[in-house]
Automatic annotation (TrEMBL):
Domain SHSP residue range list: 39-148
Stated family: Belongs to the small heat shock protein (HSP20) family.
Species this protein is from: Desulfobacter hydrogenophilus
Pfam families: HSP20
InterPro entries on file: A-crystallin/Hsp20_dom (IPR002068), CS_dom (IPR007052), HSP20-like_chaperone (IPR008978), Small_HSP (IPR031107)
Lineage, opening ranks: Bacteria, Pseudomonadati, Thermodesulfobacteriota, Desulfobacteria, Desulfobacterales
Limits of the CS domain: 43-148
Protein name: Hsp20/alpha crystallin family protein
Length: 148
């Protein structure tokens, strides 16, 4: 009888040890990103909306904290590439406690459904959003065909 109780007790202690190890493993899992004072949480992905309206595409890209001088936009045919760099510097005399917006470079590229008239592209940067207006090339625009 005592042997069976001690077996049950030993199994519970083993389960407790296992649970404690899992708890420690999970508590340390995100610690390096969220609790380390000098940690950096980076994302190089630009959130983008791509819209089409008849004879043009409109692209809206989230680029908070990035100046127009740090952005590069390239268009060739129907290929669009947006790249740049984000620079974040700690002012002298300050100690970092959290650094989720670190310096980084980024790049996104898209293959659009139609070729773009690169000479008529317009770009504007407002409130951390890059707005691109990409007119379709004349040969790519839809045309109304009249029947004779």
């Amino acid at each position: 009888m005592f042997t069976k109780l001690s077996d049950i007790d030993r199994r519970f202690r083993t389960m407790d040890l296992f649970r404690n190890k899992i708890d420690r493993l999970l508590s340390d899992y995100d610690r390096s990103y969220l609790y380390n004072p000098a940690s950096t949480l980076r994302s190089n992905s630009l959130k983008t909306n791509l819209l089409e309206s008849g004879d043009r595409f409109e692209v809206q890209v989230e680029v908070p904290g990035i100046s127009k001088d740090d952005l590069n936009i390239k268009i060739q045919g129907n290929y669009l590439e947006i790249s740049g760099k984000r620079s974040v510097e700690t002012p002298e005399g300050y100690k970092k406690h959290r650094n989720e917006r670190g310096s980084s470079t980024f790049s996104r590229s898209f293959t659009l459904p139609n070729d773009i008239d690169a000479e008529k592209v317009e770009a504007a940067l407002k409130d951390g959003i890059l707005y691109l207006t990409l007119p379709k090339l004349e040969t790519a625009k839809p045309k109304q065909i009249t029947i004779s």
